Amino acid sequence: LAAEEGFDLDGFDAVDGAEHVRLPVLAVVGRPNVGKSTLVNRIIGRREAVVEDKPGVTRDRVTYEASWNGRRFKVVDTGGWEIDVLGIDAMVAAQAELGIEQADAVLFVVDATVGATDTDEALIKLIRRAGKPTVLCANKVDGPSTEAEAAYLWSLGLGEPYPVSALHGRGSGDLLDAVMDALPEAPPQTFGDAAPGGPRRVALIGRPNVGKSSLLNKVAGEERVVVNELAGTTRDPVDEMIELGGKTWKFVDTAGIRRRVHLTAGADFYASLRTASALEKAEVAVVLIDASETLAEQDTRIISMAVEAGRAVVIAYNKWDQLDEERRYYLEREIERDLVQVQWAPRVNVSAKTGRHMEKLVPAIETALEGWETRIPTARLNAFLGELVAAHPHPIRGGKQPRILFGTQAGIRPPRFVLFASGFLEAGYRRFIERRLREEFGFVGTPISISVRVRE
Ligand code: GDP
Ligand code: GDP
C-alpha cells in the first residue's frame, strides 16, 4: 500500500455554503402606503441588490442585502400592515411582527403628510414590546415646506424624526447614518450554535398535497409561513430559520412550498424545477410521502432526484393519523417493493395534523447528515476490502477474475469511493460491496457512490 498517499483524493472536497457571517438585520416597518417599498429601493440602491427575493412581491417578509459606508446589512421589507384586520392581512401582519423580532434594529416609517394614525400608535406599541433600537423616518418630506410636519412626530416618543423623501432621495443619507448607529457592528449569532458554515440546510420536498406546508408550520410552531386556503398566498422564496431540538435549521425555499400551480399546464414541470432548486441549496432532503395513499410514480421520482443530487435523505410518511390496518399492511409491502433503492434512508411516520412523532424528525435528519459526512480512513477501508475480497471474490468471467487492488474514499457529502481493480467489476458485485460497506460503516441516510478504475 505504498502508493496510498498518491491516491488520496481528499483534497477534492470543496467547502460549500458561504454564509459564515450573519449580517445585521434591519426591519422596515410601517402602515401600507407610507412608502416602505420606495424607501427600501432607495436603501438598496439597485434592483440587482435583491438576494433572497423575486422582485415585485410585497405581501411577505422580503430580504435584501444593502451597504452604507462600507458596512453590509440586510433589509427586511415587512410588507403591508393593518392592525386588527382579519384574514390574509392579519397573517401578513404576523409576518411583520416576526420580522421585527428577528431584526437587530427597526426603521419605522410614517407618512409625514398624514401624520401619526391609530395604526401607527399600535405599531409603536409592538415595536416597544420587542425592545429593538428604532429609527423614525418621516417620509414624503419632498421639500422644506413639509419639514414642519415631520417635527410633529417628535410626539411619538421614538426620538428624532428623520425627514426623508424616499421618492427623491432627500435626507436619505442622514437617515442611513442613524440606521448604522442603531445596528450592531457584529450581531449576536442568534441562529443557534451552528458549526462553521451556518445552520444545516434542509429541503422539504414531496409531491403536491402530501402535507409539506402543514409540516413546515407544525415544526415552525408559529406562523412563519403564510398559510391560507386560498391559492397563491405566499410568493417569495424565503428560507425559514427554524429552531428544532435545540438547534437552528435552515429550511430552504419554503415559500415555494406554498406556491400553488395546480391545474395549470406544466405544473408538474414547475414542481420538479422547484424540487431541483431546493435540493441544490440543501444538505439534507426530507421527502414527504402521503401514507394514506398508494405510493405514486411521482413520489419515487422525487426520491430519485434527492439521491441523484447526492443529498442526505430522510423519508417521512405523513398523514399517519389516517391509516387503518388494511392500508398499513399494503404500505409495508410498498416500502419493501418500491423503496428498495433507499432502504438505507431513515424513515419516520408522522402526522403534521396531530403532531405525531415530530420529535423523531430531528434525530433522523442528524443521523442522515452524520452518514453523509462519514469518512473512512484509507487503511481501515483497505483492511475491510481485503477481508471482503478474500471471503467473497468476484466471480470468474471468461477465465479471468477481476481483483480489487486498492480503494480510497475520494470525498464526503455524500461519501464517494474509488476502487482500483484489475478488471471490470460487475454491477451486482459493486452493489454487494456497497451493501457490505453499509453494514460495516453505517452510512445511514446517505447515498454513496462507488466508481471503479481499471488498472491494466
Ligand atoms: P408601502 O407599500 O407602504 O411600502 O409604500 P410604497 O413604497 O408602495 O409607496 C406608496 C406610495 O407613496 C407610492 O405611490 C409612492 O410613489 C409614494 N411615495 C413613496 N415615498 C414617497 C415620497 O417620499 N414622496 C412622495 N411624494 N411620495 C412617495
Ligand atoms: P403540500 O401541498 O404538500 O404543502 O400539502 P398541504 O400541507 O397543503 O396539505 C394538503 C392537505 O393535507 C391539507 O388539506 C392538509 O390539511 C392535509 N394534511 C396535511 N398533513 C396531514 C396529516 O398529517 N394528516 C391529515 N389527516 N391530513 C393532513
From TrEMBL:
Binding locations of GTP 2: 206-213, 253-257, 318-321
Residues the record lists as binding GTP 1: 30-37, 77-81, 139-142
Residue stretches making up the EngA-type G domain: 24-187, 200-373
CDD domains in the cross-refs: EngA1 (cd01894), EngA2 (cd01895)
InterPro entries according to UniProt: AAA+_ATPase, G_ENGA, GTP-bd, GTPase_Der, KH_dom-like, KH_dom-like_a/b, P-loop_NTPase, Small_GTP-bd
Keyword Nucleotide-binding: yes
SMART domains named among the record's database cross-references: AAA
Pfam family, any one: KH_dom-like
Keywords recorded for this protein, A-Z: GTP-binding, Nucleotide-binding, Repeat, Ribosome biogenesis
Residue ranges crossing the lipid bilayer per the database entry: none
Subunit text: Associates with the 50S ribosomal subunit.
The family this protein is said to belong to: Belongs to the TRAFAC class TrmE-Era-EngA-EngB-Septin-like GTPase superfamily. EngA (Der) GTPase family.
Function (record text): GTPase that plays an essential role in the late steps of ribosome biogenesis.
This protein's name: GTPase Der
